[in-house]
Design a protein that fits this description.
With about 270 residues, the protein is an alpha/beta fold. About 25% of the residues lie in helices and about 25% in strands.
Length: about 270
């Protein structure tokens, strides 16, 4: 079974580069499951229902998010529009599972593959957010334990949206052998540490953003430099230059969920 995970879509440049590459990557690698982090798709801050629909149209099976999930308030009604047992698109966009209780939406999606040689195979996608240097989250490690204990599927992908490298690495070891992949998002810089851990869990500290790399993690350079140089506040705007799609391809055994290969991708215009 082959899984494609695409890192944080950032702004219009990110949407454009993902639209350019996603189809041929999915086709050439015979991808069974496509998961995309879309939390920065709307101008770098949040995602709207309309943009979520566009990402699904491109081929995403599940969309994950992170700390910017509530930036576009209309997403709340979109998430509330379907029950927990639905498989509609609005149910397949996730927010971090370890946010405070009783918030809209869901942090886990369990589905089955819709096509290909593994059609009907169950899978799960878990969205978690770190607690180090982040706000509004509960302990992700115990949350991960509780969630995984309730999942019957063997193929489980975890998007761990976190700031601290150490917290991400710790989560990889914490879940090694229990999930198919632990993939870091949020910091927008791809790390060169992709590997399959001894228990069969594919891991990368940060997949990197799909967006403009002539920027400061997606934002126009001059706006960020001005803040660093003067300390004065200012409105941040998404950059557009040098877009790249960052992603990983994972090969796993569908019967056990164990990964045996992870490949890092970075595709430009």
């Amino acid at each position: 079974m082959k899984i494609l995970f695409v890192g944080d879509i950032f702004g219009s440049a990110g949407r454009r580069i993902v639209r350019e590459h996603l189809g041929h990557v999915r086709e050439s690698h015979a991808v069974d499951l496509t998961v995309i982090n879309g939390e920065n798709a709307a101008g770098g801050f949040g995602i709207t229902p309309a943009l979520a629909e566009d990402v699904f149209d491109l081929g995403a099976d599940v969309i994950t998010t992170g700390n910017h999930v509530w930036d576009k308030r209309e997403l709340i009604d979109y998430m509330k529009s379907v029950p927990a047992d639905s498989h509609a698109r609005a149910r397949r966009i996730l927010r971090p599972a370890n946010l405070q209780k009783d918030l809209p939406g869901y942090g886990v999606y369990q589905g089955t593959l819709a096509g290909g040689p593994n059609v009907g195979l169950p899978y799960a996608v878990v969205n978690l957010m770190g607690r180090v240097f982040m706000n509004g989250t509960n302990d992700p490690f115990h949350a991960a334990n509780d969630i995984i204990n309730g999942i019957r599927a063997k193929v489980i992908l975890v998007d761990f949206h976190a700031e601290a490298t150490s917290e991400k690495v710790a989560m990889g070891w914490h879940l090694d052998g229990r999930v198919t992949a632990v993939l870091g998002t949020h910091t927008h810089i791809p790390t060169a540490d992709e590997r399959v851990l001894p228990g069969g869990t594919a891991y990368q500290t940060d997949v990197g953003m799909s967006g403009p790399y002539d920027s400061v993690i997606g934002v126009e350079k001059d706006l960020v430099l001005n803040r660093f140089l003067t300390g004065m506040p200012g409105k941040f705007e998404a950059a557009t230059g040098n877009p790249k799609m960052c992603a990983v391809l994972i090969d796993c055994d569908p019967a056990t969920g164990r990964a045996h290969r992870i490949q890092r991708l970075m595709l430009g215009e």
